[in-house]
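This entry is listed as follows:

___
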Amino acid sequence: MTDWDTYFVTQESRSEGRPTLEAVEAAVAGGVDAVQLREKDRSARERYHLGRKLRKITRDADVTFVVNDRVDLARAVDADGVHLGDDDLPVAVAREQLGTDAVIGRSVSFVDDARRAQKAGADYLGVGAVYATGSKDDIDDEEHEIGPDRVNDIADAVDIPAVGIGGVTADNAAPVVEAGADGVAVITEIAAADDPEAATRRLGEVVERTRGN
């Protein structure tokens, strides 16, 4: 379930005015493997109603659907799982709440955190921010632009999939995959693209091509 080349994280405020629903439909048409409902600036109620719509789209297309941070929302919209950060519930608690079949991801920037997340039962890691990114303003300097070398260190330290995230584009995704990432996650590269479907397809082609080299 975590064999992903491309992973789209939604955030309408970074989409140049394109509605999240439209961006996800285009990403799914372009072959995206996973979608995460983020939308940090929306209320829980708004995310719930959007999440129900995204759940239908992703389920019909057999695309994995996870919710950022909120275990309660993930359960409410019948998502496949949840993606957790440092300030969210521990992985083990989320597992208790969502069950053994849920997909649980954990954001990490350091090797020790990656090992702890795997030990706690995470199914995959979101590793970053790989490159400079404007989607987070609450990370410290050591977590800002960790680079492909740190991705390599983390990927070598764990046995679960690692997805590189943070400033990733089709133009710079190759070094992330070469470093050991199993796939890449993006916001702006798809959400703000002139043609999100084509952007999704191009990103996937870069990942596949790089992995095949």
User: Anything to note?
Assistant: The longest helix spans residues 44-61. The chain has nine helices and eight strands. Strands lie at 6-9, 34-37, 64-68, 81-84, 103-108, 124-127, 162-165, 183-186. The two ends are 24 Å apart (CA to CA).
